[in-house]
Amino acid sequence: MGRIVAEFFDIGHNRTVPWVRRPEAAALLAAMGDPDRRFDAVIIGSSERGFYGHQFATMAPLFEEHYGVGVWVPELGGAVDPQMGGQEELMILLDILSKWEIARVRVRMRSAMTVQTRDQGRYLGGRPPYGYRLADAGPHPNRALARRGLRIQSLDIDPYCGPALSWIFTQRLARHSMARITRALSRLWLAEITDIPQQKGSCI
């Protein structure tokens, strides 16, 4: 029975990045090249997170042939055997599943952000959309951040721009063209500024 002598786990680095550009993965490659290394096999905890695209196919020769280090993948039920037919095809399938997982994460993140903004009115950063302004929404839900005095912000309708934006959407729902809406806004804007007393030297 073997034992684990070292762990290499990259945090905050995209799996699409090659191993040589991931700090922990690069450290593992360097350790495999050390003749005095303390291990003779590498266990891939999650192939979907360890490899991406054709990374495994291009790196497989490095382990056994170049460094003489065995590779164990849980999805294969044990050690990788280059001579066993079907394993390379299975690893390619796992690489494809890795791409699918990234796509699923992106969809989940976008869906969560949409719900937070649409249903909860949460402010997720960036410039507020036209017609909205930032409003205080109470203490931060993270207790550590709340103790530091941080508060969450939500999107609130701007009292000056909000009515104009609502009017624009109402006109679009009434099937008016953008050109017609623009002309109407221009007439309203000119009517408003002509009612404002102009100072000497000012121009409209």
From TrEMBL:
Source taxon at top rank: Bacteria
Name of the protein described by the UniProt record: Uncharacterized protein
Source species of the chain: Streptomyces iranensis
Taxonomic lineage: Bacteria, Bacillati, Actinomycetota, Actinomycetes, Kitasatosporales
